[in-house]
Write a structure and sequence with these properties.
The complex is a heterodimer. Helix content of chain A is about 5%, strand content about 45%. Chain A is mainly beta. In chain A, the strands form 3 sheets. In chain A, strands 2, 4, 6, 8, 12, 14 and 17 form a 7-stranded antiparallel sheet that branches. In chain A, strands 1, 3, 5, 15, 16 and 18 form a 6-stranded antiparallel sheet that branches. In chain A, strands 7, 9, 10, 11 and 13 form a 5-stranded antiparallel sheet that branches. The longest helix of chain A has 6 residues. Chain B is built from 2 helices and 18 strands. In chain B, the strands form 3 sheets. In chain B, strands 2, 4, 6, 8, 12, 14 and 17 form a 7-stranded antiparallel sheet that branches. In chain B, strands 1, 3, 5, 15, 16 and 18 form a 6-stranded antiparallel sheet that branches. In chain B, strands 7, 9, 10, 11 and 13 form a 5-stranded antiparallel sheet that branches. The chains are: A mainly beta, B mainly beta. Chains A and B meet through helix 1, strand 8, strand 12, strand 14 and helix 2 of A and helix 1, strand 1, strand 3, strand 5 and strand 15 of B.
Chain lengths: ~270, ~260
Amino acid sequence: MALSSVANYLSAPKRIITYRKNSGGTGLTAGQYLSLFDSGGSPLNGPLAVGNITTGIVPVAGSYNSLNDGSNGYPYIPLTINSTGQITSIRYSDSTQSKYILVDTLFSMGAFAFNANITGIVSPSWASRAPTANDYNDLEIWFEAVTAFTGIPTIAIDVKDRDGAAVSGGAGVSLGIAPPIRSMIQLPNPSSKGISAITKVTCTVATAGTFNIHVMRRLWRADVKYATGEYVDNYLKLGLPKVYSTSALRVLFAPSGTVAGVQHIEFEVSDA
Amino acid sequence: MAIATLDQYIAAVRQRVTYSKTASRTSVAAIPFSLFELAGNPAAGVLAVGNTANGIVPTDATAGYPSINNFAGGALGYLGSVQFGNSVAGRITMWDCLFSAGAYAFNSNVVLTAQPSYSGRVIGGTDFTNTELWVEAVTAFTGIPTVTVTYTNQAGVTGKTTGAISLVLALTVGRMVQLPLAAGDTGIQKIESVVCTVATVGTFNVHVMRRLWTGRVRINNDGDAHDMLKTGLPRVFDSSALRIAVAADSTATGIPEMQFEIVSG
């Protein structure tokens, strides 16, 4: 069920997901998105390397006990009435000026080596996490550095579009930098018609380093304009993005300076 | 149908369209530049339109424009919210690109024929007001082009003209310049002819566009979220060709990232 009125929103049970990372970091690059996935906090740190370079996986939400049971790195989605909900408010603060992107991680694969040449990938379907059938339009491909790189990698990704047609990423794209560990870099989509599968991943030029590839559905972006300030985005700003009880929520983080602070984000999900 | 109440907005079918470019373009401060053929999401388009004789009506299926899912039968679409940011300070603007023709050479004198109609992408199918006429540089110019576009105005009056407009400087790739319409005109139904003189090198497109949204990134790596009260719920069609330009404060268009919420009901 989706929300259908103000009254419906007001009466819907609200579930709160806390996302707090406190590991900090120094020597960062201003404006460069970073993964917080293996950083301590809530949810607990997950393993940066995905652990699958043959087919990839469709990550899912952590369990109810994910704060203390050896989490997979993703927060528990406390939807108990329906298997889907809508994010209706986000409260966030940071000890440093920064920006965030919230995504549902639909597909992950890695860690690939700097000289990976993996072809013929048959990735599992993420259709159950598309908001409407075959809605792959708003998906993005992201690179995540699992270990630091030597040399500037060129990454080429082949995909299938929303209609299942094969689309080549050609010779790929140079990332422009030797990515430090945890760097998150969005890759250009080979297709204008969405992404329903990854079929090839290659990396050239670099001489050291490992990385993951993720397909992500963007749910929210925001800026912490002043350090230590607190902000609240309501449902009108958020546009009521849909989440699933299985959604693998990640926050990508970019500092405005060279030091990461402590991120505290609370997502209100209406369970209706 | 239409979205006329807050409840209808909440209950509307919604889809999210992302727009991110992973490459930057050299630009000029405070001047809008096209991002159309830059890599990213959506994938790069081809800057040259590829049709100078008739022009085309680009859609969301045209390479370089983001895909939009079809609306349910009878439903109308709106731009519900925009979340946006950029690695550089500047202004981001979005249009629905209704008509494109080009790439015209620096010495073109072309009378268009059999132009496709874009009435299906204006409000009510008849409201051509608030459409804008733009030039987009496809290759760099030598010399300062003077462009004259003859058009049919919003009321269907043929033979209207922009007059000979000097574009003031030699355009670089991707630079966009809005052309004035004749006094009293508020829109364009059809492009009739395109003439370029004075310049000695360079090619360009001509676009008719309907402005949907604009937002400012105040400082580098900044952004904002505009809800429906800020976007004003402008009408979007499920075939709309959403086109973005960045007018940066400095000399690069940066790495913009945006997410549009399109609601239909």
